[in-house]
Design brief:
The chain has about 575 residues and is an alpha/beta fold. The chain is built from 11 helices and 28 strands.
Length: about 575
C-alpha cells in the first residue's frame, strides 16, 4: 500500500525524526510543523524522498549546527518540491542560492531563523513562487529588483532583517501579482521610487522603521492600497491627497517630518512673517506654562489611586516602547466618564466604549471587569496575543492603560460595527449584505485565521470566533477581534512549554460561545485550530441563511453541542 501524505502538524510529538520514513519513497506531503521533534535535521531521510512536494517541519527543536549543509543540499535536490516550511529552526547559514534552482517552489517559509547573507539575485527563476516569508532573520544587502519580476508572487515578508540600500526602481509593464510587501524594521534608505505605482496589485505596503527620506510620491494615491505604514522614517513635505491618504491614521505617519499632518507644523508657517513668529513664541510660552500647571495638578489628583500613575504600567509584554501613552484621565474624558451612552459592546470579561480624543479621533476602549479575579490574566492574555500578531484582518492595539484598580485596552474604532449587526439588526432597521460583500468578508476572516494558525510567529487559537467578534471597517473589510480566551500554542523562547503554561489559561475558561463551539470540546478535547475552522463554517452558514446556529431550523445540530461545559 502506497502512502502519499503524513499529516501530524500541531501536536506534541517528541523524539527524533522517524528514520523509517526514508522507506516511504512515495510520500508527497509531510506536515510535521509545530511539534517538539529534536535530534539532527532529517538530511538522509529527505534525500530519499524524490517525490516530495510539500515539506513543513517549522518550529521544532532540531539541532541544525552539525548537518545543516548536508540538509540544505538534500532540500536543493527535491526537484518536485512546491511548498517548503522551515521557520523557527535556527538555521544559522547564508540563504542558499541553490533554492532558486527549484523552479517548482510555490511557498517558501524560512522566517524566524538566523539566515544571513543577501537575497540571491537568481530568485527570479522561481516564477511559480506565490508566498515568500523571510522575516526575523539576519539578511543584509539590498532588495534585488529581480524579486519583482516573479509574475505569480503575491506576498513577501522581509521585515526585521538588516537589509539596506534603496528600494529598487520597479520596471514598467511588469505583470507581477504582488499584493503584500512588508519590508519594515530594516536599514533601508533613500526615497520611495515613483515607479512603485507599477505594482498595480499592491494592497498592503509596510515601510515603517527604516531610514527612508524625501517626499511621498503622489503615485501611491492612485493605487488601491488598503494599508500603508510610513511611521518612524525621515519623510518630509506634504502628503498626497486622495486614495489611501484620506484614511491614514496618525500612527501610520508618526516619527517623520511631514507637513499638514496632525501633530506636525504646517508647511505654510515657514514663510510666515516675523510678527507671526513672535506671536507663536508667545503662545508657546503660555502653553508651556499651562501644561506645567496641569502636570502638577494631575500628579496631585491621582493620589487616591494608591499612588499609582494612571498611565501605562510596565507589565511583562513591553508595549510601552512602541505604543503611545494615554492616561486614565484622558480615557475618562474621551468617554464622558464611561457614560452608558458611549457603551458599544459588553461581554463576560468587560465593556467596550466609544471614545473621542481631544484631536477628534475615535477609539474603542475595552475596560475589564475588576470584580472578576481572572481580569489580570485576561488582560495579560489579550496583550500577549495582540503584541505578537499583525495582519490587516486582525484587530490592532493602540495602547493600554493599567494599574491595580483599572485595566483597559485601547483599540482602533470600527465605524461599521460588527458582522452581528448586519446579520441580526436590532429594532426595525434592515441591513443586507450583497453577495460580493459576503464573499469578501468570508475571505477576510479566512485570511486572518490562516495567519493566526500558520504564519504568525506564535500560533494562536482564537477559541471564540462568532459574528459579534468580527468587526467591519470603513470599506467593509472584516477584522477578527476579541482574544479574551485565545490560546498561544507556545512562546518563541520556550517551544517545549504547553498551551496552558504560556497563556496562563485555566480549565474554567470558555472554549467558545453556544452554537459556534466545536462538538469535540464537549468531550474535554483541548483547543485546536480545528475548533476555529468549525466556528468559521458556522459563520459562513449563518451569513448565507441569516439564521443563528441556535435557530429552530438547526435544532438537531444544537443537540451536538449541548454537552459542552460552560
Amino acid at each position: 500500500m502506497l502512502y502519499e501524505k503524513l499529516l501530524l502538524a500541531n501536536n506534541s510529538l517528541t523524539g527524533a525524526f522517524p528514520p523509517s520514513l526514508a522507506n516511504a519513497t512515495s510520500f508527497e506531503r509531510i506536515y510535521l510543523d509545530y511539534n517538539h521533534l529534536n535530534g539532527p535535521l532529517p538530511s538522509d531521510i529527505v534525500a530519499q524522498l524524490p517525490a516530495l512536494e510539500i515539506l513543513f517541519i517549522s518550529y521544532n527543536n532540531f539541532s541544525s549546527e552539525e548537518n545543516l549543509t548536508y540538509f540544505l543540499s538534500a532540500i536543493s535536490n527535491l526537484t518536485q518540491l512546491m511548498d517548503l516550511g522551515e521557520g523557527g529552526l535556527h538555521l544559522k547559514r547564508r540563504l542558499p542560492s541553490t533554492f532558486c534552482l527549484l523552479d517548482s517552489l510555490s511557498i517558501i517559509l524560512l522566517q524566524d531563523n538566523k539566515l544571513d547573507g543577501t537575497i540571491p539575485s537568481n530568485i527570479s527563476n522561481l516564477q511559480n513562487l506565490t508566498f515568500l516569508e523571510l522575516s526575523d532573520n539576519l539578511l543584509e544587502g539590498p532588495i534585488p529588483v529581480e524579486l519583482f519580476l516573479i509574475r505569480n508572487l503575491e506576498r513577501v515578508w522581509l521585515s526585521r532583517n538588516n537589509l539596506d540600500g534603496e528600494i529598487p526602481s520597479i520596471p514598467a509593464n511588469i505583470t507581477t501579482r504582488l499584493g503584500v510587501l512588508d519590508i519594515s524594521q530594516n536599514h533601508l534608505d533613500g526615497r520611495i521610487p515613483s515607479s512603485i505605482s507599477n505594482l498595480q496589485a499592491m494592497r498592503f505596503l509596510q515601510l515603517s522603521e527604516n531610514f527612508l527620506r524625501g517626499t511621498i510620491p503622489s503615485s501611491l494615491a492612485v493605487q488601491e492600497l488598503k494599508q500603508l505604514n510610513l511611521s518612524f522614517n525621515q519623510f518630509s513635505g506634504s502628503l498626497p491627497h486622495g486614495g489611501i491618504f484620506d484614511a491614514l491614521t496618525f500612527d501610520s505617519l508618526k516619527g517623520n517630518k511631514f507637513c499638514e499632518t496632525e501633530g506636525y507644523l504646517n508647511c505654510s508657517s515657514r514663510t510666515s512673517s516675523i510678527a507671526h513668529r513672535k506671536e507663536f513664541i508667545l503662545l508657546l510660552s503660555i502653553t508651556a506654562s499651562v501644561l506645567f500647571t496641569l502636570i502638577i495638578f494631575c500628579t496631585v489628583a491621582t493620589k487616591p489611586f494608591r499612588g499609582t500613575a494612571l498611565g501605562l504600567s510596565r507589565y511583562p509584554f513591553e508595549l510601552i516602547s512602541d505604543h503611545p501613552r494615554i492616561t486614565y484621565r484622558e480615557l475618562w474624558e474621551a468617554t464622558g466618564g464611561f457614560d452608558q451612552t458611549r457603551l458599544i459592546g459588553s461581554g463576560g470579561f468587560g465593556h467596550v466604549y466609544k471614545g473621542t480624543l481631544r484631536d477628534g479621533s475615535f477609539i474603542a476602549i475595552k475596560v475589564l471587569h475588576q470584580h472578576d479575579h481572572n481580569s489580570s490574566r485576561i488582560f495579560n492574555r489579550e496583550c500577549r496575543v495582540l503584541k505578537r500578531v499583525r495582519h490587516r484582518n486582525l484587530m490592532s492595539i493602540i495602547t493600554t492603560c493599567s494599574n491595580p484598580e483599572f485595566k483597559a485596552i485601547v483599540l482602533t474604532f470600527m465605524s461599521r460595527g460588527s458582522l452581528e449587526d448586519y446579520l441580526h439588526p436590532r429594532g426595525d432597521s434592515e441591513t443586507f449584505l450583497s453577495l460580493t460583500e459576503i464573499v469578501n468578508i468570508c475571505s477576510d476572516i479566512a485570511e486572518g485565521m490562516t495567519y493566526l494558525h500558520s504564519h504568525a510567529l506564535v500560533q494562536v487559537i482564537h477559541c471564540d470566533l462568532k459574528p459579534s467578534n468580527i468587526l467591519l471597517d470603513d470599506d467593509m473589510t472584516a477584522i477578527v477581534s476579541d482574544f479574551d480566551i485565545a490560546r498561544l500554542a507556545y512562546a518563541p523562547a520556550d517551544r517545549s512549554a504547553t498551551v496552558d503554561s504560556i497563556s496562563t489559561s485555566t480549565d474554567t475558561f470558555l472554549h467558545g460561545s453556544v452554537g459556534y463551539v466545536a462538538p469535540e470540546y464537549g468531550y474535554g478535547r483541548q483547543a485546536s485550530a480545528k475548533g476555529d475552522v468549525y466556528s468559521y463554517g458556522v459563520i459562513v452558514l449563518e451569513m448565507v441563511t441569516r439564521k443563528r446556529p441556535t435557530d429552530e431550523m438547526f435544532e438537531r445540530g444544537v443537540s451536538l453541542i449541548s454537552w459542552v461545559k460552560y
